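Class prep. Write one:
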Amino acid sequence: MATQLRYLTVMLAMLALTNSCEKKEYSMGTLAAPSEVVINTEIVGADATHPAGDGSGDVKITVTGKNALSYKVDYDASDAVDLVFLPTGSTTKKYTKLGLNTYTITAVAYGKGASATTVSKDVQVQSNFTPDPSIVSNLTGGASKTWIVDKSIPSHFGVGPWSATSPTPEWWSAGVNEKVGCCNCFYTSEFKFTKVGTTGNYTLTVTSPDGAFTKTGSLAGGLPGIPATGDEACYSGYPGGTSGFSFVPSSSGLAASTPSTKTAIQLAGTNTFIGYGAVLKEYEILSISETAMYLRVQGTETGNAWYLKLKSI
């Protein structure tokens, strides 16, 4: 009897060992892409008389989808595709291009196993904006005023991440006179802002006796006279130029508590710039007085935020 019990015990142990060594199989289930994906938009202030909204440019956007685990959205397909994560599927976007404009919103809904569904929707939005009169007065002097980069103070030039949570040049900032040796054109170029009579129009005239301080090729943002290749430097081929500009609500997305006027200078065309050529055309005015101005602008390397301090002359 004892022998039989020992035999049975051994057999049970071997059976248990065999079962423990069997390969377990897992299943992720069906990897069907999200379906019934919809972009819902509510234009703030829209009614029968004002179908494009109240002029604030604000649009409430919500993306929904069956079997969707997360979403990304691009707010305007007319420029470079820039899909941003939408954690809750909802947000409010402020469109800042003045007047009545149509934007194509593109949303991507992601499901199991990285499956995805993409949908788009057009939305027509009215954006009106009147800047604080003190900003206009300080920038133009009521008629015209000329500004230059202020080399006499630290951090007159700097760079940090283009992020809504980073309002400072945390990566690098210039010391006093830092660019004199390599790129003195950075300090000799002049930027004249003019209020054109009572028309409500504005112009910027750039005078660059020693060239434009910029990167080359596509990173020069379309500035004329800049070579296709080369290092960051002063380029005398840039002839200067004049273009219109407008005041727009800043679209940087910086937190409301961040010190800023929430107003930006939007340059028209590609033949003008402020301070540094390798940037886009919307300069957020962080602060401005009669004699000093502090700007933040997205670089043509779009992960960069550049900071410029100027003084009036």
About this structure: Helices lie at 2-21, 133-140, 180-183, 185-188. The two ends are 110 Å apart (CA to CA).
